[in-house]
Amino acid sequence: MNRKGHWENLYKTRSDLEFSWYREHLDSSFKMILSTGVGKDAAIIDVGGGSSTLVDDLLDQGFVDVSVLDISSAALEKSKKRLGNRSETVEWMAADITDVYLPENRFDVWHDRAVFHFLTDAEDRRKYVELVMRSLKPGGHVIVASFGPQGPQKCSGLDVVRYSPESIHDEFGSSFELVDSLGETHNTPFGTTQEFTYCYCRKSGKSTS
Description:
This protein is of the alpha/beta class and 209 residues long. Helices cover 29% and strands 29% of the residues.
């Protein structure tokens, strides 16, 4: 089964509470996005947003330019159904992050919780970073959360790469400044814990937002 088929099958056959990474609200992500200081008209993309409620919280906060990208159409449909009419204000993209076109200098904030660590192939990570470089505005903000050094080695049947804040920053390179980081112990719906690492970097160049 290919990557898209794997995730479509999971989202069609499981509820959110059957996913180990599920949180009712992505509090750490939300706080880190707010810490960037961007205005309510800032363009924010949630990569791997799937059925996450981060988009709900961003809309509740008054952000008006929110995009959600996920490889699974079924996951996005869950979020659209939950949001109802409010879903019409969001740009939804069903795509593989390693094979998608995004406009140049489109976004002020790039957020990803638990996609990057699935990219075990160095070429896929290179494509990912190149996409961030192209689509993020100069001075833009990138927030990536992955499993930490003591986190799981596999998730949903797939291998992952575990990161420290420094090793995430190393993947992005000198064009990005490491601004902040934090570690989080995530309590899964199953009563177990997972170590997450959050890394916040800023792209070089003057912000236009």
